[in-house]
Amino acid sequence: MDASKRIEELRELINYHNRKYYIEDNPEIEDHVYDKLYHELLDLEEKNPHLITPDSPTRRVGGQASNAFTKVIHEIKMESLQDAFSVEELYAFDKRVRDTLGQTDVEYVVEKKIDGLSVSLEYESGLFIRGSTRGDGIEGEDVTANLRTIKSIPLRLSVPAGIDLPYLEVRGEVFMSKKDFLELNERQEAMDQKIFANPRNAAAGSLRQLEPSVTASRKLDIFIFNIQRIDGLATPTHTASLEFLKVLGFKISPDYKLCSSIDEVIAEIDALGEIRGSLPYETDGAVIKINSLAQREILGSTSKAPRWAIAYKYPPEVKKTLLKDIVIQVGRTGALTPNAVLEPVRIAGTTVSRATLHNEDYIKERDIRIGDTVWIRKAGEIIPEILGVDFSARPENIAQYKMPSVCPVCGAPAVREEQEAVIRCTGIECPARLFRSILHFASRDAMNIEGLGPALIEMLLDKGFIKAIPDLYTLHERREQLIQLERMGEKSTDNLLESIEKSKGNDLSRLIFGLGARYIGKRAAQLVAEHFKSMDAIMSADAEELQKVEEFGEKMAFSLVSFLSQEQTRHTISRLKDLGVNMESSLQKKKGGVFDGLTFVLTGTLPTYSRNDATRLIEERGGKVSGSVSKKTSYVLAGDEAGSKLDKAVQLGITIIDENTFKSMCGL
Known about the structure:
The protein is of the alpha+beta class.
């Protein structure tokens, strides 16, 4: 078949199945069949780049990051809504509407108020051309590249034959489902990255990523709820416009209800209130709109909001219950999180028997104790949390709660670092934090085991192929089993095993960094390896000897001694040694380099160098890199979006250089 014909056929097929899966929630084919079609199209487009079009399904994830979002002026103002918090306010709204219109015959549409980020989507001749955030309603930001990654947004509309649609602008709410929100936070925790407070924050943060591929990984979704502007066609009512949007291929406001009176509206709001806790997405109320577009024109808008719509906000549901116990959960980063065991209570549509207590400070600030009667709510309608204690109901002589000093999973010391609220397990063999330990051990600056990413580590742990870091070096014994894993095969398996074997010969400094002792970063690991030359010598050193190492302070020295003296650490190192991992260092102190005695601080994003590249160039020339600006800083190497470090450098009079100056200093 001719390539252009097959490409067009594949696009139609993939767009059809995207619609069935992401919009109609009614998939017709298995994922692997879809993947096969997608990759066939991808291959054909790579071989025939002249046939690639902007609306191809393969164009959803852009490869280029934007340094900033350009501003967009909304021709049609994206208005906010007046809020109502009581039934009386709804009756007052209805009276104002009927009085203004001079009639009693008014239809209302009730929609769920999805808690997300409002956006505008623009189409020309059915092709998606631009998407922007609401901003202040008049000026937003162009986030087209990121919106293209949302698979429920059609890149080309299914315009019915005979209809001319030169321009269309619609408004929708970008959101993240509760399930995807919880999974995202699990991944963020595993990578020791920011945890989002609620799905709305997660959606907003994901949509404003500078790299579209990050947005694509966040599984955002959208509901379209309004036509902002349409050329060439008119609809008489809001419900008619929603149904037309559905025909075009949009995922419209879900399960909207047409009501003939304000009493019906209130009944529908009550019904939504009963089920909203069980919905797969977060809602924070209901939106009531006039159905007739002609009546909307008569009612108009104030300077702040339309007079033809109002948003009803549900009051936060707070209940009292008994706190029966506090149990500790150990997360993948080793964080010890206290959780309350509660007398079951129904709140926001579900029965709650547990609630997070966050950390030690949270418990102390609220003086929460086992046996207390506590006030509970769902933060963002999802995560149960304790607001406070009913002290009038506190039994006599119940003790203050104290966080454990050892990990309840493995028994290793649990410590709280300075300026952190979290207490963490320090055991390198702790099953609870093993995922994070292996991820760090295999990372590029540590043992640099290529191909051993988060998904594969997860699989190896689930299958029981690895139960500790040293087990990585026995994986060659499971080659045939590895080949059978999803997305592996012979080539990927052999590449992984080769990389694992190669890592045995790494310098000792990489191993020290990979073991993950507190305060021992890449630079400190290099310095201690360079100074002592062998793992045995480092393990024999006391804190006083370690403080003789350049840049080692008391805190770093005691941390490393404590870590290396743990039974788990010694057992891991002994096994690694038996398996042939190098325990020696050949690093030599660099002298006489052009940066000898100079300290650099890096901030912002450089045009061509990564932070690791710049650090390597500095250290190869005898310099060192610090994480903070001080009077001892020689130069601050600044790139785009430099932050507070740049401000401090200006205050202290530190010399600031850009990448071109840095290259010249390096002799490049």
